[in-house]
Request: fold
Amino acid sequence: MNDLLVSASVLSADFLHLEDNLRQAVAAGSDWLHLDIMDGHFVPNLSFGMPLIKAIGSLQICPFDVHLMVTEPDMYLPACKEAGASLVVAHAEACPHLHRFLSNCRQMGMKAGVALNPSTGPECLRYLEDVLDFVLIMSVNPGFSGQRFIASALHKIEQVRSLVAPEVRIGVDGGVNAEWAPKCVAAGADTLIAASAIFGSSDYKAAIAGLRGH
Ligand code: DX5
Ligand code: ZN
Reply:
C-alpha cells in the first residue's frame, strides 16, 4: 500500500496572502500542493494560469501537481515542466489521445495522471498500464471548491484500485473532509486533495491531521 499523502488545493487559499498561506499549509503537514487550471470551456469557471503556477513553483516548498480542467491539456505540458510540476493530470473526458498525453508527460520527466469526472467510469484506464502513474477520482463536478462530496466516488475508488497496478496512486478531489477522508482511504485512495477543508479552517494542522484520521 502506498503512503497516505495530503495535498492542499490552492483554489481556496487566500490569494492576497498566497505565499504565506501555502507555506503554512506545508508547515502544517500538507505533503503536496494541488494547482487547478480551468479554461472556462471544459469547466464553467476560470481559476489561474501558468504565470501563477510558475511563481508557486519557484517557491520550491514541496512537490505539486497540476490538475488540467481544460479542453486541450497537451498544450500546457511544456509550461508545467518549466514551472517544476511533479505530476500533471488531464481529464479522460477532454483527451481523446490519453495514451499519448501520458507518454508525453513521462518523456518530459513528469508523472502522468488521469482524472475521471463523477459520471465517467473507470474502463478508460484499462489500456493505459504502461504509461499511468496516478488516477484522480473527482468526487464533485469539477469547476469549484466548496461542493459536497458525491458518495458514488467511493465505489469508483474500489473499482479503480482493483483495475490499476498497486504502485499507481489514487487521489480523490472534491468535498474531501474529515468525515469522508477515512472512507476514501478505506476504499483504496492514497492521496487526499482538499481545498476548503484546509484553507477554510483556522487551524491547518488540525485540519490536515483530521484528514489523516488522527
Ligand atoms: C474542483 C477542484 C478541486 C477543488 C477542491 O474542481 O479540482 O481541486 O479545489 O475543493 P474542495 O476541497 O473545497 O472541494
Ligand atoms: Zn483539482
The chain has one domain: 5-212. The chain has a mean pLDDT of 98. Residues 153-163 form the longest helix (11 residues).
